[in-house]
Design brief:
About 40% of the residues lie in helices and about 15% in strands. Strand 3, helix 3 and strand 4 form a beta-alpha-beta unit. Bound molecules: phosphoenolpyruvate (PEP).
């Protein structure tokens, strides 16, 4: 944790859940989201954002998108503008997730432009960075992440409350987690690069059994949760571990 920063526990539902399951999951998260020190955020697939925003109204649980386009509007079939998410009541948007960098060839420059568009629309961007296993094994993790941060964060990121999620690619959905020392070292490097105010999340196979130890590390201000966010009890247990 970082003194003065409220932890954020963010659930990335990715491309999961039927419409019925999304309602059930949102209702279960809402029901358990009382008396928590951490801020809670759920990021459903686009078709469910409106409904989940409605279900979370007045609960204090924030809702976010999983991507947005750089443009305000126009001929971009299949894409979603940041202002559309904002209109529905979303507060955050995940950008540059490693799955989007891999599946859609997203570059640091594109992520930076998307983050600028998100800020312009009044959304808080959560920009994801993280090294591959080969880069970790070559001793390049900190350099890779530093370069991604330099390339992916736009002007005004800190002032807009922008969030960074450190997600080692090899830890996502694999059950593998870096050592606590490695997470702490990486987060200390990000803190030195970004300054005192930016919320720094860890993501990658976080679950109730490892959350408390990870969230207790210096400069870890919350988590970005994938698989465990699809089970309300697990997501809420991780949130409770944040204090
Ligand atoms: C993620 O994809 O953001 C993530 C952290 O996934 P998981 O928790 O399943 O590793």
């Amino acid at each position: 944790m970082t003194p003065g920063i409220r932890p954020l526990i963010a659930g990335n539902w990715k491309m999961n859940a039927s419409a019925r399951e999304a309602v059930d999951l949102a209702q279960a998260v809402r029901a358990g989201a009382t008396g928590l020190a951490a801020e809670l955020l759920v990021c459903p697939p686009f078709p469910y954002v409106a409904g989940v925003c409605g279900l979370m109204a007045g609960s204090g649980v924030a809702v976010g998108g999983q991507d947005c386009h750089t443009a305000v509007k126009g001929a971009h079939t299949g894409d979603v503008a940041a202002a559309m998410l904002k209109d529905l009541g979303a507060a955050y948007v995940i950008l540059g997730h490693s799955e989007r960098r891999a599946d859609h060839g997203e570059t640091d420059a594109l992520v930076r432009a998307k983050a600028a568009a998100a800020i312009a629309a009044g959304l808080v961007p959560i920009v994801c960075v993280g090294e591959t296993l080969a880069q970790r094994e070559a001793g390049q993790a900190e350099a890779v992440v530093a370069a991604q941060l330099s390339g992916s964060l736009p002007e005004g990121f800190e002032a807009a409350g922008g969030v960074v999620a450190y997600e080692p690619v090899w830890a996502i959905g694999t059950g593998k987690v870096p050592t606590e020392a490695d997470i702490a070292a990486l987060h200390a490097a990000m803190r030195a690069q970004l300054g005192a105010k930016t919320r720094l999340l860890y993501g990658g196979s976080m679950k109730p059994s490892n959350a408390q130890a990870i969230l207790a590390l210096a400069n870890v201000d919350g988590g970005l949760i994938g698989g465990a966010a699809l089970v309300a009890a697990d997501f809420l247990a991780i949130a409770k571990a944040a204090g």
